[in-house]
Every structure is written in C-alpha cells, then in structure tokens.
Amino acid sequence: MAGTLYLVPTPLGNLGDISRRQAETLASVDFIAAEDTRVSIKLLNHLEIKKPMLSYHEHNKAGGGVRILERLLAGESCALVTDAGTPAISDPGEDLVRLAAESGVEVVSIPGPCAAITALAASGMPTGRFTFEGFLSVAGKSRRERLEELKGERRTMIFYEAPHKLVGTLQDMLEAWGDRALCIAREMTKLNEEIVRTSLSGALARYTEAAPRGEFVLIIAGAEPETPKATMEDALARVEALRAQGMRLKEASRAAAAETGLSRNEIYNAALRGSGDGTD
Ligand code: SAM
C-alpha cells in the first residue's frame, strides 16, 4: 500500500509557532523532503527530531519529485517542508502534490503559518474577498501587463516581495494604479515585526529614505467601484421631478447639480431652454 505525503507548514520566524500536529508528523514520517536541508535541520534540532532528509527545490523538482513518488508508492511516508510557511504556496510543492495525487497517493495538508494570510488578517483591509498574487514577474513587460490587468481588481490584493525589489514594485504599482491604501507586513513573528498601514506613495517615501530590509507582504486595497457618470438628461429629469414638487427652477437646478456633479448653470440653462417659457 502506498504511503502518505504530508504537507507540513513551518514557522515564519518564531519557532514557538510550530504546532503539536506538525511536530508529531515530522517525527512520525519515514523521511522529510526539504526545500533547503540546512534551514530545516535547525527546526528539527529544536524539536529534537532525527530523520532522513532529502532536498526538493525549484531546481531539482522534476527528478526529485519522481524519486519521492517512487518511495511513496513503495509504502514510505514523506513530510514536505519549505524554509518557512506553507509548502506549495509560492514555494515548491505544487508539482509534487499533483504527481502524488495523480498516482493515487494520499496527500494530507496540515494547517499552519502562511505569510499571506497572517498579513491579510492584520491589515485592516476587507478580507471577505481577496486575491493572492504572490511574486510579480521580474520581467518588465509581463510585470507591467499583470499590473495593468489588475487595475480594475476590486478585491484586496496580496503580494510577496523581496526587499531589494520593493521600491521598484511600489513605483510600478503607483504608476499603474495611482495611489492606493497599502498595508506592509514586515518580518512577521520576528523581533523586528512591523505592520505599517499607509499608502503606495507613503510607503515609497518611507523606503526610498531608508533601504528596506527583511521579508515583506504587501496588502493592497482593490479598485474603488466606478460611479457611473450622470448625464444632462438625468439632471433634467431630476429638475422636472423637483419642480413638480413645487421647487423653483433655481433651487431645483442647484439640487440636481449637487446630486449629479454637473454644472448648476448648465442644468439651469438647459432646463430653461427645455421649458421654452423662460419662467423660474
Ligand atoms: N510558502 C510561504 C508561505 O506560506 O508564506 C511563502 C514562501 S515565499 C518563497 C517567501 C515570501 O513570503 C517572502 O519573500 C515574503 O514575501 C513572505 N514572507 C515569508 N516570511 C515572512 C515574514 N516573516 N514576514 C513577512 N513576509 C514573509
């Protein structure tokens, strides 16, 4: 019978965030596939767990995945861990999960830390609907195209970004969307944790002055719904309704202008022309 592939999230920075179930799983599997064994060994030492490990990362995932699958099919169980957070979320794992699932291997996803969700929860932005964008492409053209596609996105948006690319990314976003509310979650669960609720321009000023350091999640407000523009026809219909209630033309035009955002004089003159009697 085939073994099980366990997806085991690991702390974003604070080792106290390891859960009992995560630790028990790491202790019980036959072997651990780690994004970087040098990083994961520190966690295993902290938990006093000794376990055979192998590397599974972006650059060996094709061959590495097949070797892991063979062991799973032979009945061994495997825990997949990455350097921090949840495997398969902007991290290696997606392909291995697909491979395992297609081969009938059971995949158990253990809940735990994920930078995107941890930041979103603290952001104060609408959380009912959101979209996770992960890292933007480093290639200028596809990056600009993606930002353009997201211009009208109404949901809260979540991005990951590396410190040395942060200023460029904020500039590109500001250029593509104009200013927006932004929450920057930096170094979450670590000594220098910072949750900054600001705007794209505010963050740009802040990080242009002092070079950004650490790990960042950007939570960005979605686009405001476009308010349909009122027409002169709408304004005149409103004037007519107000006049029918006994309001004088001047006041009705003023009220219609306030409601529609159109010019009071233009509404007044158009209404005068429309009535043809020149009465106020
Ligand atoms: N799979 C991981 C997860 O579930 O969060 C994400 C891995 S991705 C390669 C790494 C990115 O996550 C970083 O560049 C940063 O954007 C974000 N990140 C990870 N740890 C963080 C932390 N402690 N504070 C802020 N952002 C963090």
Short description:
The protein is α/β, with parallel strands linked by helices and 280 residues long.
Describe this structure in words.
The strands form two sheets. The chain has a five-stranded parallel β-sheet, with helices on both faces. It has helices at residues 20-28, 37-47, 61-73, 94-102, 115-123, 140-149, 166-177, 200-209, 232-244, 249-260, 264-275; strands at residues 4-7, 31-34, 53-55, 78-81, 106-109, 130-134, 156-161, 181-186, 194-199, 216-220. It is elongated. The protein is built from eleven helices and ten strands. The chain binds S-adenosylmethionine (SAM).
Summarize the topology.
Blueprint: E1 4-7, H1 20-28, E2 31-34, H2 37-47, E3 53-55, H3 61-73, E4 78-81, H4 94-102, E5 106-109, H5 115-123, E6 130-134, H6 140-149, E7 156-161, H7 166-177, E8 181-186, E9 194-199, H8 200-209, E10 216-220, H9 232-244, H10 249-260, H11 264-275
Parallel strand pairs: 1-4, 1-5, 2-3, 2-4, 6-7
Antiparallel strand pairs: 7-10, 8-9, 8-10
Helix pairs in contact: 3-4, 7-8, 9-10, 10-11
S-adenosylmethionine (SAM) binds next to helix 5, strand 7, strand 8 and strand 10.
